[in-house]
Amino acid sequence: MASGTTSVEHAADAAAHGAEASGAGMPQLDFSTFPNQIFWLLVTLVVIYFALSRIAIPRISAVLAERAGTITNDIAAAEELKQKAEAAEAAYQKALVDARAEASRIVAEAKAEIQAELDIELKKADAAISAKTAESEKAIAEIRAGAVKSVTAVAKDAAKEIVSAMGGKADAKAVTAAVTARMKG
Amino acid sequence: MATEAHEEGTGLVFHPLDQFIVKPLFGDGPIHWYTITNATLWMALSVVAIVALFVLGSRGRAIIPTRTQSIGELIYGFTYKMVEDVAGKDAIKFFPYVLTLFMFVLFSNYLGLLPMSFATTSHIAVTAVLAMAVFLTVTIVGFVKNGSKFLGLFWVSSAPLALRPILAVIELISYFVRPVSHSIRLGGNIMAGHAVMKVFAGFAAVAVISPVSVGAISAIYGLEMLVAGVQAYVFTILTCVYLKDALHPGH
Amino acid sequence: MEGDIAQLGQFIGAGLAGIGSGAAAIGVGHVAGNYLAGALRNPSAAASQTATLFIGIAFAEALGIFSFLVALLLMFAV
Prior knowledge:
- The complex is a heterotrimer.
- Chain A has one domain.
- Helix content of chain A is 90%, strand content 0%.
- Chain A has helices spanning 2-22, 34-165, 172-184.
- In chain A, helix 2 runs antiparallel to helix 3.
- Chain A is rod-shaped.
- Helices cover 63% and strands 0% of the residues of chain B.
- Chain B has one domain.
- By secondary structure, chain B is mainly alpha-helical.
- Chain C is rod-shaped and about 60 Å long.
- By secondary structure, chain C is mainly α.
- The chains are: A mainly alpha, B mainly alpha, C mainly alpha.
- Chains in contact: A-B, A-C, B-C.
């Protein structure tokens, strides 16, 4: 390590030179610069202290407090809005339920009304039908009665004719009785 | 400071500590206490960065923050929570103080990582003042708040009586070592990282190993990015721990 | 000649002090490893202990930094 030893020698030389130049090898131990450094350090610290404590710290703490306040307010407002939204939703749900109930009620009413009308109409129709049926039966009975009378008359006439054609003398009373008896039979 | 490794004859020459030299920004005279030096410049730049982040970034006072404002709010919230969790609720009135220290250390660390920059927090003078400020604050607050009860911090009442004087001596020593370790931890970490990078940069002068050297610088740079943040965090959280001791001295 | 011997002592001392950095690395590894082991056993408690983790790492690392500082002092300041 030839270069190592030479460098060490040089370092020692340099140290010696430095020691000659400034009184001590380490600049940190050069006491002639201490008053200067201490004076300027104190100036620096005082300036920083006043800049921070008079301007920066009140300003930043005010900003932080304001921000905290704003955030708290915003959170409160958000909470309020959320509650409002929940209330609105509940009202909506209630309205929906009411509307459903109303609708089903209306439907039921309409159904009942229709049913009632239907029943009346049905009754009317039934009555009309039964009236018609009775009329028709009466008409049929009349027609039948008419027909029986006609048949009786025709039968009497025919029997009278037949009897007279046979040369006999038709006894109207006997013929009628016979025809009537036959008709019944 | 440019890389100080320059070939002198045969070997390499390392000047890993030359980057920490404090020198006047204008002219070449002696350094008085009022002289504007490179340390002054980089402290001023950290002030500018902090003001840009916190004052200009939050000037909109927007409820929905811009990017810069939201970074500022994140750091604010992070530090606030740290003070509240570690030091307790009644330590909130020290929050601007803690935030000032945190911001200065954080920005100095990160600005010091820029190439050609000057790391103000690598100087024992700077970190010692920061640590002594914390130490004095903690001690004064402890005595003002608790009076003589603050001395109960050193008198471990849960230990056996015979052990208590010995423990008191140990506690007292550890109490007075606090500012030393507090300052040297920060300054030493930053200085070590920068010196190691500079040593690797010195090796880059040799053509054969320069790729390895450049790779190593990149890796160390990544590590130093982490260290810069962690050391600022540790400095702050230890401040909070000490504040808790001052406000609640009981063990 | 005697200056050379003094320098030799300085460099040897600096090298020995550098060992301390490695020891600090072991310490930091212990802290982080035990944290991870604990976090895997009880992940819900892990998040609340990150601050303690960083404090522990910082304490362990500070001692390594001290030894590094001793090495630097021997190299450049004595």
